[in-house]
C-alpha cells in the first residue's frame, strides 16, 4: 500500500479556488475543524480528511508539527498562501492557521446526497492535487 501523498507545497493558482470552494461547501455542512488544537485532536482521534495549512503563519513553530501528524495518519495536507483566505472560506471572521476538512461530520448526520457530494468534491480535490504533485516530481 503506498504512503499518503506528501503535498508540502503551496497549491497552484488554478487549484487554489477549488480547494477554497471545497472548504466553503464543507463549512456549510459543518464538516470542518478549525485551528491547530482542534485539528491535532481530530487527527489523533483518527478522523480522516484533507488538512489545509496557511503559509503565512508567524511564528512558523505553531504549525510545524501538523504535517508530521498528517503523514503519520496518512492524511493528505496542502498549503495555501494566507490564513485570511482560509478564514473566509471556512465561514469565520477570525484568521485560521489550519483547517481539517472531514469527509463526514463528527456530530449529526447528513443527507445521503449531501454526503456523496462532499465525498465527490474531496475525491476531485485530492485527484487535482495529486496530478499536480506527479507533474512536479
From TrEMBL:
The stretch of residues making up the signal peptide is: none
Where does the record say this protein resides? Answer: Nucleus, Nucleolus
Q: Which UniProt keywords apply?
A: Membrane, Nucleus, Ribonucleoprotein, Ribosome biogenesis, RNA-binding, rRNA processing, Transmembrane, Transmembrane helix
User: Which Gene Ontology terms of cellular component type are present?
Assistant: nucleolus; ribonucleoprotein complex
Q: Which GO terms describe its biological process?
A: rRNA processing
Record has Ribonucleoprotein as a keyword? yes
**Family annotation (InterPro entries):** eL8/uL1-like (IPR050257), Ribosomal_eL30-like_sf (IPR029064), Ribosomal_eL8/eL30/eS12/Gad45 (IPR004038), Ribosomal_eL8/Nhp2 (IPR018492)
- What Gene Ontology terms describe what this protein does at the molecular function level? RNA binding
Could you list the residue ranges that cross the membrane? 7-27
Ribosomal protein eL8/eL30/eS12/Gadd45 domain segment(s):
23-103
PANTHER family the UniProt entry points to: RIBOSOMAL PROTEIN L7AE FAMILY MEMBER (PTHR23105)
What family classification does the UniProt entry report for this protein? Belongs to the eukaryotic ribosomal protein eL8 family.
The protein's name is Ribosomal protein eL8/eL30/eS12/Gadd45 domain-containing protein
